[in-house]
Amino acid sequence: MYRFVDPTGWTAALTPAQFEALTTVAKRWGMCNTVTVERMFGGDGAVIVNVGSMWLAVETDGYVHS
Questions:
Q1: pLDDT tens per residue, range 11-47
Q2: Using an 8 Å Cβ cutoff, are 49 and 18 in contact?
Q3: Which residues are bridge partners to 10 per DSSP?
Q4: What is the pTM of this model?
């Protein structure tokens, strides 16, 4: 099970669709159990996650893009 936190270490507020999409991203990229996500500036609730070679954005409806 993955835990998604903001940069301060608190559990990130995510929609169910974002949680599911981030879980898929974490599995695909072989991330550890605790993954840091950040709010995207001007993203209307979107979050971004660093997967090593790039940043991926996850919209509130679960859509993932780079």
A1: 999 999 999 999 999 999 999 999 999 999 988 999 9
A2: no
A3: none
A4: 0.93
